[in-house]
Amino acid sequence: MPRRTEMLGYGNFLRRPTVPSDEAYERYLEKTDHLLNVWRQSLAKSKSVPSDLSLVSLTEENEQKLIAFVSPDREKYTVRNVERDLNFMTASTFFSEYYPITKPFSIVHCDLDMPLHTVLSFSTEAELRAINAAIGKDTPLRWWQDGLANRPCYLFGNAVWELRKSEAVASTEGVALLFMNQSERGENRLKQMRGQRQNPNANATGAGLQEKSQVSAWKRGGVPQNTAEKDISS
After folding, report:
1. What is the pTM of this model?
2. Structural Rg of the chain based on CA atoms
3. Distance (Å, rounded) from C-alpha 129 to C-alpha 142?
């Protein structure tokens, strides 16, 4: 079955919907997104034609532009500092507090290698339905990050799950079925745990019944199952 990851709680953030707009932050994010996109495009072209030195030079030039722009605010937008910034919240917290989500939103990401930038945006009704269906454990949504060995990851419930190697080749319908089965098993397990909390003596009662059955068999001249095993082995 899919393996749960910690992606939602690390590096994936949103500006809190309750904080005032920040024009300086919005300009920074817009410019960073643009420069990062330009660099990625030139990098992809240079990889497709590695013999073209002009593309390699252009890629390096675009990278330097990106670094020069984000450098003044790099310390401000490190993962650790964004985690501590009360203007931000993790994607996991946002999904927990605002589901079902009714207004457009964007998720930003940063790590040791990448500056803070936009990774996902949900603005249309169809996009909001898709994200709510994923959080509500109805239909898994392909996540923007990959797992180990580039294995695909999906948002389902308030977590991102990584498919195992044998599951990564499944069709869209097959992936949905994987999560439906997992959700059903999880619900059954939850019901079982609730039942045990409501009747904490259930296990003790079961053990007592088994013991009484063995005593009755002994009185009738029979041999309880556990005793029989001991006699045979001896």
Report:
1. 0.76
2. 27
3. 14
